[in-house]
Amino acid sequence: xxxxxxxxxxxxxxxxxxxxxxxxPLVDNEGVRSDFINLRNEDSGVKKTNVCGWHSxxxxxxxxxxxxxxxxxHIKKIFDLTEEFVNEFLETNHTDLFADRIxxxxxxxxxxxxxxIHNHGKLDLIGVYYIExxxxxxxxxxxxxxxxxxxxxxxxxxxxxxxxxxxIDAIIGRLYIIPGNLYHYVKPFDNEGHRRSxxxxxxxxxx
Length: 207
Description:
alpha+beta; Jelly Rolls; 13 strands; five-stranded antiparallel β-sheet; six-stranded antiparallel β-sheet
């Protein structure tokens, strides 16, 4: 029994967060995968944070039209559901914000491919939806980079409460939304197959 009383640990001090939802009841993930492969075949990709993997061009609504095209209806539905989910999250948490600008791209990593540590600059939210996940392939690893990481509490022997990294479980059909300021990276894997995902940049504005 502790001799100290009225102890309080406010775990909501300067919080980061992850919000997530299972989209499998709302989408045909095989259709999403088919759209992905068709886009993969016609998009030569760009070089960003990807090492040996493929990073598509950026997609989104331009003048009211969905780019790369409404024929990719399954990809479009993920995009639209992400906007709806983010807006519900913002409303539930009593902000006066809405998802004003959303852009997206596709990522494919084969064995040995990965994404280097980075952030997305001045951005409000980041999202990732997992389309295909090989065995033993991990999800996005989030990295804490503030001055707390230089203290003794944040060491390799610390409890998970004080850790400087957190890896998201890569689950097919799940959408994850995280704060846009967080650094993150994706580890390589050795198994056969492809890790395929849809990534989002989301800016919010007052209603």
